[in-house]
Write a structure and sequence with these properties.
Order of helices and strands: HEEEEEEEEEEEEHEEEEHEEEEHEE
Distance between the termini: 40 Å
Strand content: 35-45%
Shape: elongated
Structural class: mainly beta
Number of strands: 22
Oligomer: single chain
């Protein structure tokens, strides 16, 4: 018991006094191109640690929409004696596979976020000098933050689970999936004619749910009919989401940077985090470029037998990792 008491005391002395994570929402934050920044993050001013961030930037000139989350970015501050008010920095990461597409968001409060006061304005004066209040690709051409504030909230974003439902069209011989209740209802009721549920679905987190670990936002692209496509493509990889636009800008149009949130597998082995379920991606190999996403090995084998091509990470082509 004496050893335990000394251990508890040592841990207490090692922890900064008053260490507590507070959660902050971004309110009315806007760039000079008229687009906005929304989202939230946790911050402990005693340890200077950022956690559970989910910060979403809208598309603008030369910028795709993007959602910074722990699965696709790192977060830190530049606090120090030379910077008494820390600038919060988010930098996109994708396993080092896509450094040329690295993007950085910097945002600075006018005072330390210690909870007093509960609302702190964004420092827009530093934006002109480029030291804070901006977003850039490889920190070249940037868009500046010109307004907004940090508002303390008592709780982190909730953790919820939603179904991602699969549909099939006989007319197109295409599959599509959706996690949006409004869109699912439209597909169910025939507003989008010719689509029916396949009976397959898997679980994920909704847009805006509390993020941590390897959870990533899933982007959705629409293949334009003018390019002979009329299909959809989904990915939880920031690299994929960037490259589709970079390589096929006239063929595929981004519809969202975050239609739902899910874990990304190990990009070398395809292994999913413990307690999650592999989602396999298959490609029809045709010009209309349809993909099917399934957690069923039986479905996977059937589609391969029909000529569909496994895609994704590792030997089995795992592209996402679903919630049990």
């Amino acid at each position: 018991m004496r050893t335990v008491h000394w251990l508890v005391l040592a841990l207490a002395l090692a922890s900064p006094a008053g260490a507590v994570t507070r959660y902050w929402n971004l309110q009315d934050v806007a760039f000079d191109d008229g687009t906005t920044v929304t989202g939230s993050f946790g911050y402990d001013d005693a340890t200077d640690e950022v956690s559970n961030w989910s910060v979403r930037v809208k598309a603008g000139a030369n910028y795709l929409p993007f959602n910074y989350m722990p699965g696709n970015s790192i977060a830190y501050t530049n606090a120090g004696s030379w910077a008494p008010v820390p600038t919060f920095v988010l930098v996109s990461q994708d396993g080092g596979l896509n450094p040329f597409a690295e993007r950085t968001l910097r945002i600075t409060p006018v005072a330390v976020l210690d909870g007093t006061p509960p609302t702190v304005a964004v420092d827009t004066a530093t934006a002109a000098g480029g030291s804070g209040g901006m977003e850039c690709y490889n920190c070249g051409l940037s868009r500046r933050i010109v307004s907004g504030s940090f508002v303390m909230t008592p709780l982190p974003p909730p953790i919820a689970i939603i179904p991602v439902v699969e549909f099939y069209s006989v007319t197109f011989n295409h599959y599509v999936m959706s996690a949006d209740p409004v869109e699912i209802n439209a597909l169910d009721t025939g507003y989008f004619a010719g689509w029916a549920r396949t009976g397959y679905e898997f679980n994920a987190y909704p847009t805006g749910a509390s993020a941590g670990g390897s959870i990533n936002p899933v982007c959705r692209y629409y293949g334009l009919p003018s390019a002979g496509l009329s299909s959809h493509f989904f990915s939880a990889s920031a690299r994929d989401c960037f490259l589709v636009h970079e390589l096929f800008p006239t063929d595929w149009q981004i519809e969202s940077d975050n239609v739902f949130q899910i874990n990304l597998p190990d990009t070398a082995t395809g292994a999913c985090p413990t307690g999650t379920i592999p989602v396999y991606r298959l490609f029809n190999g045709k010009h209309d470029a349809n993909h099917r996403y399934t957690t069923s090995m039986v479905v996977r084998s059937t589609m391969i037998g029909l000529g569909w091509i496994p895609e994704g990470y590792g030997p089995l082509g795992v592209t996402m990792c679903a919630v049990p």
